[in-house]
Amino acid sequence: MSKEVGPLNPRTTSYEFNGITGVLGIALGLPLLSIVLNQMIRPDYYIEGAFSNFDIAELWNHIKPLKWYLTNRELWTYYLTWFGVLAIFDVTLPGRTMEGVELRDGTKLRYKINGVALTTTLAAVLAIRWHLTKGEMPELQYLYDNQTDICIITIIFGFIMSFFLYAFSFFPLLKANGRGTKEHILSVSGNTGNPVYDWFIGRELNPRIGPFDLKLFCELRPGLLLWFLNNVACLHHHYLQTGEVNNAILFVTLAQGFYVFDGVLNEEGCLTMMDITTDGFGYMLAFGDLTLVPFTYALQARYLTVSPIVLTGPYLSFLVALMALGYYIFHSSNNQKSHFRQGKLPHLKSIDTKRGTKLLCDGWWGMSQHMNYFGDWLISLSWCLATGFQTPLTYYYSLYFAALLIHRQKRDEHLCKVKYGDDWKKYETAVPYKIVPFIY
Ligand code: NDP
């Protein structure tokens, strides 16, 4: 058995999300919300004024008993093929190798960076399938027609995977030289000793099968790319039904596609993100990556298939400009911090810390503590605005994302206070705003 508490793996003493009640509420509530949102934007469900016509019995009509999902071969084959093929691509396609941040035992994990090869392969597969099926693409139609059912399969898959991840975090790890065993590195926030809490937050920091890193894979491949495919499936369905494509759904698909592939192609940026460096891999990330991202971030495209909108030229230009502004802030602020940390921008003002690293308080990082979050949120708003103002449902993404980013900022602040002590207070005096300059 691996050692649970010790200098390498300190016991987690503070609980987030209001402790066990909170994590149980999220673990049950968010899957339910994902199912309901998908059902509400269903072609055969009355959508306009969705709240005034809210009929839970009608919504639940199409949901089958759990056993039906657990034993449905067709759905499982579809999803596991998607997951498995991407995993095979991830392991076999060529790429560079990069080191992650230094871990508590002084080692660094090596990651294969092959987003370019993966994107090229995926584009080639889609083009070949398009050619072979003369544009019919039955796989995309299946995804469109069975969206809620596949969403439920990913929820079950996330549950099962996170139980295994939790259990395996107690098994001894083989040393790289094959001799003896070594201690798992656990997450600083998922090692309370309470099984429910640790299962949710994730006990082990970087669960791996050989060199295959499950957390980075799930963060960047099966969920993110399924979000894009869900959008393409909506666009494709709309085209097959009407023979045309409205500019709103085209904007949403292209803009979100750009965002997805920006993430997939700049995967090294992920190696320093809180999800990889701090959080364990448990139900929280498994559900977020595999269900929440592909099935609730794709609601705009789904809505625009059910209720097509044609945007005016000036309004569309405004949305493109808003997305471009958000992307510019998001991308250049993330780059600025990364370049600064690599010693490339020595002229920018910063605070020296006892920890040895410098805290930038100039440029984007002088305007607020997380200008990158603000840029990211503006991007999300441009997508929601593309759905017009007929239902609040399609604004779910911006609202949820605002809550996620504020919560993330608070978590990061707590961790930085612990990491930097008094130096963080100096930084807060120099940069008082958290996310939005002059507002918050
Ligand atoms: P940040 O990129 O803001 O990184 C925070 C960390 O950076 C801190 O813990 C600290 O770590 C370091 N840091 C903080 N302030 C400074 C400073 N002034 N100077 C130098 N280093 C500093 O946060 P995230 O990792 O959470 O997010 C990265 C990106 O991912 C963001 O753009 C975010 O919008 C995006 N994102 C997108 C999501 C989505 O679902 N679309 C979900 C979550 C994030 P240390 O000092 O230890 O290096």
UniProtKB/TrEMBL annotation:
<dbReference type="GO" id="GO:0006696">
    <property type="term" value="P:ergosterol biosynthetic process"/>
</dbReference>
<dbReference type="InterPro" id="IPR018083">
    <property type="entry name" value="Sterol_reductase_CS"/>
</dbReference>
<keyword id="KW-0752">Steroid biosynthesis</keyword>
<feature type="transmembrane region" description="Helical">
    <location>
        <begin position="152"/>
        <end position="174"/>
    </location>
</feature>
<keyword id="KW-0753">Steroid metabolism</keyword>
<keyword id="KW-0444">Lipid biosynthesis</keyword>
<keyword id="KW-1133">Transmembrane helix</keyword>
<keyword id="KW-1207">Sterol metabolism</keyword>
<comment type="pathway">
    <text>Steroid biosynthesis; zymosterol biosynthesis; zymosterol from lanosterol: step 2/6.</text>
</comment>
<feature type="transmembrane region" description="Helical">
    <location>
        <begin position="113"/>
        <end position="132"/>
    </location>
</feature>
<keyword id="KW-0812">Transmembrane</keyword>
<feature type="transmembrane region" description="Helical">
    <location>
        <begin position="306"/>
        <end position="330"/>
    </location>
</feature>
<dbReference type="InterPro" id="IPR001171">
    <property type="entry name" value="ERG24_DHCR-like"/>
</dbReference>
<keyword id="KW-0521">NADP</keyword>
<comment type="similarity">
    <text>Belongs to the ERG4/ERG24 family.</text>
</comment>
<dbReference type="GO" id="GO:0005789">
    <property type="term" value="C:endoplasmic reticulum membrane"/>
</dbReference>
<dbReference type="GO" id="GO:0050613">
    <property type="term" value="F:Delta14-sterol reductase activity"/>
</dbReference>
<feature type="transmembrane region" description="Helical">
    <location>
        <begin position="377"/>
        <end position="406"/>
    </location>
</feature>
<feature type="transmembrane region" description="Helical">
    <location>
        <begin position="20"/>
        <end position="41"/>
    </location>
</feature>
<protein>
    <recommendedName>
        <fullName>Delta(14)-sterol reductase</fullName>
    </recommendedName>
</protein>
<feature type="transmembrane region" description="Helical">
    <location>
        <begin position="281"/>
        <end position="299"/>
    </location>
</feature>
<keyword id="KW-0472">Membrane</keyword>
<dbReference type="Pfam" id="PF01222">
    <property type="entry name" value="ERG4_ERG24"/>
</dbReference>
<keyword id="KW-0443">Lipid metabolism</keyword>
<keyword id="KW-0756">Sterol biosynthesis</keyword>
<keyword id="KW-0560">Oxidoreductase</keyword>
